[in-house]
Amino acid sequence: MSVLPPGTLLQLMYLRERLRALPPGRFIEIGPGAGHISALLLALGWQGSGYEFAPPSAERLRQRFAPEIAAGRYLVAASDWLEEAGTEPCDLVLSCMVMEHLDTPAEQRFLGRARASLRAGGRMIAIVPASPAHWGIEDEIAGHYRRYTLPSAQSRFSAGGFRILHAAGLTFPVSNLLLPLSNALVRRSEAAKLSLSMLERTRRSGMRDVPMKTRFPAALGLLLNPVMLYPLHLLQKLFRHSPRALVLYLEAEPGPAARPGRSEGRAP
User: Fold this and answer.
1) Mean pLDDT in the chain?
2) Is 50 within the bounds of a domain?
3) Contact yes or no for 166/267 (Cβ under 8 A)
4) Which residues face 263 on adjacent strands?
5) DSSP per position, 172-241
6) Is the predicted pLDDT of residue 257 greater than 60, yes or no?
7) Residue 149 contacts residue 243 (beta carbons within 8 Å)
8) Strands, E assignment, the chain
9) What is the pLDDT of residue 1?
């Protein structure tokens, strides 16, 4: 098993806690990438589909989840979810680091399609980059259109027919402390991607190979694992309301637009 970056591990640890409060059902994950979130959902008793429009990533997903696919618990679709004629109704629509790759019209189509896909009582979970003040080289090479704040996310989700139930800033302060090093590693390894189109940068964003950022020596698995990072998980929960957090976790349900002045999105 590959060694995951600390930020990825912290996001997965928070997501696992939130998912434990939901009864397993059927999910759709858009942009599974390496499949870490789909693996978590399947381990918790969910079944569903992953839509991955980069063919090499889709093939790696099929290899990773061959037993679950054979058992009928998981389906990999090598296609653009927004362009699909129709998808099965589900209890959970989930995307991690996807919405920021969509321009504003596509983002609203994404939210509308998510809303239409959910059964009664269903939820959407989105994990997106946060804090526009920290826009940098990684956003450029990955093909991002934006970083979110909680107010901007509330506005966009409300326009898409969702009500945010829970929000939290994640990976603070670890990712902030590591950001200068992260930017240097990305610039050294991936600056050439800046010459690519936004679409091609998006296609390649799930297939990155940056030593000491996306790829680590196996020996570091002794440190980079949920047990060793648990104190940092508690720290990210303590600072979950920080506007400086680089990652924003959002849970939403279909509903009317938020009323002016209503306070939403504060983590319980």
Assistant:
1) 92
2) yes
3) yes
4) none
5) TTHHHHHHHHHHHHHHHHHGGGGGS-HHHHHHHTTS---BTTTB--GGGGGTSSTTTTHHHHHHHHHTTT
6) no
7) yes
8) 26-30, 47-51, 74-77, 90-96, 118-129, 162-170, 247-254
9) 64
Sign of CA dihedral 59, 210, 218, 172: negative
Total domains in the chain come to 1
The answer to whether position 262 is within a domain reads no
Q: Can you tell me the distance from the alpha carbon of 27 to that of 122, in angstroms, rounded to the nearest whole number? A: 10
CB atoms within 10 A of CB 176: 16
Which residue type sits at 263?
S
Asked if residue 173 is part of any domain, the answer here is: yes
Q: Exposure of 100 by Cβ count < 10 A (0-12 exposed, 13-18 middle, 19+ buried)? A: buried
150: enclosing H helix or E strand: helix 150-159
What residue numbers bound the domain in which 103 lies?
A: 6-253
pLDDT (mean) for 61-85:
94
pLDDT tens digit sequence for 186-208: 999 999 999 999 888 888 887 78
pLDDT at 28 over 60: yes
Within a domain: 247: yes
Residue 134 sits in a domain whose CATH number is: 3.40.50.150
pTM of the model: 0.92
